[in-house]
Inverse folding.
């Protein structure tokens, strides 16, 4: 890959991380931090957008930049797992389990819906 | 709207996110995309990133003096961007398409268990009592 492409991967990855942070604090400032709704909102919306890109048959460098770099950095697995672990530590095992199951169920539905919509583009 | 955040914190998140993005793309380049076979690249960055975030979050919060920029740089930026949720969902969809439901279940459940274990192990390591320090 050429250096310009790497620069794009870096810059868009930074933008994705910033977008995640800003949506997370916005959601948490309204809904509180008892349940990690901010991360859920980030991950579900990211799965939806990545589904759209897939459905729209974006390929090659365009998919690498918009999908893998931007949306890949926007959504997060590590924070999702950390927040699940911390819920468990607080003996909120029901919420911990719900955080895993709801994220996967709604994330898959969002990705599938996005892909169907992207196919119409 | 976001007046409570400061520019240096945002810069730290951007820098960490840029590094995490390049690292993840680098791993995908080396190991290949995978799906609908087992996506080793995604699995590896996710489990490694969860382990690292457990380490950073616990150490920065409970062991080190408060720092404004380490958590945004290393946690929100680097580990957040190194790992990915959306790619996992799309990989699972492709496995469903291919009729590989067993693989999808194993990959989905395996990722969560391994990621959770990564956070648990690194958190425990940071909190363990240190002898002689």
């Amino acid at each position: 890959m050429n250096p310009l492409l790497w620069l794009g991967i870096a810059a868009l990855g930074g933008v994705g991380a910033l977008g995640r942070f800003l949506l997370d604090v916005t959601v948490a400032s309204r809904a509180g931090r008892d349940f990690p709704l901010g991360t859920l909102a980030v991950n579900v919306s990211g799965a939806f957008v990545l589904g759209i890109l897939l459905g729209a048959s974006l390929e090659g460098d365009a998919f690498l930049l918009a999908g893998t770099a931007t949306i890949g950095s926007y959504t997060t697995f590590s924070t999702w797992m950390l927040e699940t672990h911390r819920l468990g530590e607080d003996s909120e095992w029901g919420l911990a389990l719900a955080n895993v199951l709801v994220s996967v169920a709604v994330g898959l539905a969002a990705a599938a819906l996005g892909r169907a919509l992207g196919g119409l583009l | 709207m976001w007046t409570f955040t400061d520019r240096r914190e945002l810069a730290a998140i951007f820098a960490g996110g840029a590094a995490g993005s390049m690292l993840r793309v680098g791993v995908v380049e080396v190991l290949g995309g995978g799906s609908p076979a087992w996506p080793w690249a995604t699995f590896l960055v996710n489990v490694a990133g969860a382990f690292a975030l457990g380490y950073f979050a616990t150490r920065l919060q409970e062991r080190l003096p408060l720092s404004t920029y380490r958590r945004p740089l290393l946690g929100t930026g680097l580990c957040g961007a190194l790992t990915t949720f959306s790619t996992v969902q799309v990989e699972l969809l492709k496995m469903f398409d291919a009729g590989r439901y067993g693989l999808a279940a194993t990959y989905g459940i395996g990722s969560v268990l391994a990621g959770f274990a990564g956070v648990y192990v690194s958190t425990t390591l940071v909190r363990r009592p240190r002898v002689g320090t």
